[in-house]
Amino acid sequence: MIKRVKIKSSNRDFLKKVETLSGEDITVCDRCGVCTGSCPLTIEMEISPSNIMKMVQLGQEDVMDYNSMWVCSTCNYCTARCPRGLDVSKVAEALRQIKLRQSFDKINIDKIPKEELRELPQIALIGAFRRLTS
Ligand code: SF4
Ligand code: SF4
Prior knowledge:
50% helix; mainly alpha
């Protein structure tokens, strides 16, 4: 039987928002750490995938202060192995949406050197701007 974590009422709104946007029932995560062990990018993340889940579960909005949600590449290795069938990449995407809706830009075109803009694949640039700017 799945045991659900009790959440403080003040933090419930943030959890609900992330659950609505991601479509994931985050409270069923038991923080087993399998996602962290499966993720090829954990080394680049300030907090691990299982810690993302834990902080969202507890309604801690400062989860968005860490780089992890931007680093997630949506490779879905974690989802394939999660014993609860959770999709961490959808949670990361929900967090990015919340942050971007606050008019936050993760990348700034003016700060990219012109030579790099000429050399980078245009399709990759468009993809990055759609995903990382508000
Ligand atoms: S593998 Fe699934 S249940 Fe385990 S910590 Fe990650 S998201 Fe939670
Ligand atoms: S989808 Fe994101 S969190 Fe999951 S394994 Fe891939 S990079 Fe890591």
